[in-house]
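Entry 14. Ran structure prediction on the chain below.
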Amino acid sequence: MITGDASDITQVAGVGAGALVTEMAKSTWESMRLGVARLFRRGGEENAPQELQLIDAARQRLVDSSERERGSVEDRLRNELMIQLGGIPATASGRGAGASAPG
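Output, structure tokens:
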């Protein structure tokens, strides 16, 4: 079960989305991608393969964007990923991407 209020969940998902978008543009993306795949599977996501396809498509949009478009593409991806990460259910231990940190 996710604990904390909606603003906590949104904040955690927002930070995660920002970090993910930053990593997408780096050459180390493949190792981060593996971690994202584990996150979706650990969160009990039945649609983990489809979620990962969405992440891959988002990265491709970022990589294919022109330098002039890059900032707006990053902003859109952060928003999309924040929603996606905020929807990951908590794990059996009670913590997931959308779970708030202990207070």
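The chain has one domain: 6-86. Will compare against last week's run tomorrow.
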